[in-house]
Amino acid sequence: MIETTRIKDQQYFPTYHLSKEATEVALKEYDLAASTLASEGKVLNMSTSVLLGFIGVAAAFYKDNAVRVEGALKNGIESTHTLAAFVIVFVLLTLASTSYFADTRRSVVLSSRKIIILRRMLGLSYGHIELVLPNKRIEGANEPYHLRMFHGWISPKAVPVYCLSITSGVLVWLFFPKFQLGEKYFVFGYNFFPIALSFLWGIFVALYYRLHLLDQYESIFRIVSVFTARILRQKIELNFEYIIYRSRLSVMEAKRLGVPVEIFRTILVALEDRAFYKHHGVSLRAIFAAAYRYLKRGKRSGGSTITQQIARTLFLKMSGGSVRRKIVEIFLAVWFDRCFSKNDIIDLYICSVRYERRVNGVIEAFKFFFPHEQLSNVNVSQAFFLIERVSNINSGLIVDKLILNIKYLFDNKIINRQDVFNIIDIFKYQIEAKRIKSSQNNLDKIKNDVFNHMFFYGFETKKTTYEILRGEIIKLYKSFFKIIRNI
C-alpha cells in the first residue's frame, strides 16, 4: 500500500525524490508559505473587522445626525463639478477596496495550495481521513485544487464583499434622490429609480469581486455553464482545474514516451471533425444535420465536435443522448475552446478519451491492443485503428462506417495502399485475439470493398480507370506527333 502511494505521488510530483539540499530548500519554502498564509489571514480578518466597525460607526452617526447629513449632502451636490468629483472618488474607492479584499483572498488560497504541494513533495499525506480533516480545508487536503479560489456566496468568508456591496448601495441610494426626475420615473407616485440603481450597483460590486477570484481556467462562460447544468439538473465535475491538470499530465507522459501525436491529429480531424480548425468548439451545421437525421429517420448520430466530445468525457458525469446534456455540453465546449489551442485540445482528446471499456487514453489503449510493441514506433495504420476504437463500449465493429472511413482517408491521401493492407491485417489480428467481437465474413467484406475501391481509383489517385486510360492515350498521342515533327 505504501509503495503504491509512492508511485502515485511520483506521477503527480516528478520531484518526489528530493536530494538533501533540495529538501532543505523545500522546507524553507514551506516555512515561508506558512508564514505568508498566517500573516495574510490576519490582515484579511483585521481588514474585515475594521470595515464592519466603520460601517457601524457611520450608521450610528447618521442615525443621530440624519438632518445635518442630508443638508450637507444637498448643499454639496448642487454643484456639477462637485458631483462629478464625488462620483469618481466614490467609484474608485469602492472598486479599490473590493480589489484589495479579492487579491488578499487570492493570495491566501495560493499560499495554501503551495503548502499542500510542498507537503506532498516532502512525502507527507493525510490519506483518506476526510471525516476528521475535510479535504476542502488546508489541514486535510491532499490535492491543491481542492481549495477553491472562490469560497461561495454563503460562506462566512464572503462577509467583506457583502459589507462593501451593501454599504456602497446604501450610499448610492442616499445621494441619488437629490436629482430631479420627470414623472415618467415615478411608480404609484413614488420614485423607485434610486432603489433600483443602488441595488444594481451592489450587484455590480459583488460581481466585480467574483471576477477577481477567477481560477486558472475559469471564465464567465464556465460560470454560466455550471449554472446551466444546475438549472437543467445535469451532474458535472466541479473540480475543473484538477481534472485539466490530470489530462495535461497524461499528454506530457505521452510525449515523454515518444508517442507521435501528429499522426493521430491528422486522422482524428479527418474522421471526427473536419471543420475542427474553423469552428469555435461547436459546429452549428453539424448540430442541424444531426437534428435533421433524427427528425427524418429517428436516428441519433453525429453532431458533436472534437471539443464537445472531450468536454463530455472530462466533465459530464452522466452519459446518454438527452437534449439537456447536449446543451450543457455545448456551453462547456465553447468555454474549453477558449482555454486551449486547437492542437492542445486534440492532444488532450487523444490522451484522455475512452478507446475501449475501462481503457482511457492513448497509452493504455496502445498497451491493450498492441502489448508487444513500442509506443514510440506507432505507425499510421495503428493510429487509424486506435482512433476508430474511440468511445467503443461493446468491442464491436461497425463495418459500413469502417469502410467509409478507410475510403475517405485513402482518397485524400492521408493513408496509402500499404497502410490499407496493414489496417486489414491489424483488424484480423485483433479479431483473432478476441479484442474485437466480429466475424471473418465482416472482415472479408471490408477487404473486398476497400480493395475494389482502390483498384478502380488507380490506387494512389482519385482518377477512375477511364480517366487513367484517357490520360495514357493523350500522352502517347503527344509523343507520336513530337517524333513526327523531329523527323
TrEMBL record:
One of its GO terms (cellular component) is plasma membrane. Pathway: Cell wall biogenesis; peptidoglycan biosynthesis. The keyword DNA-binding does not apply. GO terms for molecular function: peptidoglycan glycosyltransferase activity; serine-type D-Ala-D-Ala carboxypeptidase activity. It is found in: Cell membrane. GO terms for biological process: cell wall organization; peptidoglycan biosynthetic process; regulation of cell shape. Residues 264-390 form the Glycosyl transferase family domain. It catalyses: Preferential cleavage: (Ac)2-L-Lys-D-Ala-|-D-Ala. Also transpeptidation of peptidyl-alanyl moieties that are N-acyl substituents of D-alanine; [GlcNAc-(1->4)-Mur2Ac(oyl-L-Ala-gamma-D-Glu-L-Lys-D-Ala-D-Ala)](n)-di-trans,octa-cis-undecaprenyl diphosphate + beta-D-GlcNAc-(1->4)-Mur2Ac(oyl-L-Ala-gamma-D-Glu-L-Lys-D-Ala-D-Ala)-di-trans,octa-cis-undecaprenyl diphosphate = [GlcNAc-(1->4)-Mur2Ac(oyl-L-Ala-gamma-D-Glu-L-Lys-D-Ala-D-Ala)](n+1)-di-trans,octa-cis-undecaprenyl diphosphate + di-trans,octa-cis-undecaprenyl diphosphate + H(+). InterPro entries: Glyco_trans_51, Glycosyltr_51/Transpeptidase, Lysozyme-like_dom_sf, PBP_transglycosylase. The chain crosses the membrane at residues 43-62, 82-102, 158-176, 188-209. Its main location: membrane. Keywords: Cell membrane, Cell shape, Cell wall biogenesis/degradation, Glycosyltransferase, Membrane, Peptidoglycan synthesis, Transferase, Transmembrane, Transmembrane helix. This is Glycosyl transferase family 51 domain-containing protein. It comes from Agrobacterium vitis. The lineage of its organism: Bacteria, Pseudomonadati, Pseudomonadota, Alphaproteobacteria, Hyphomicrobiales.
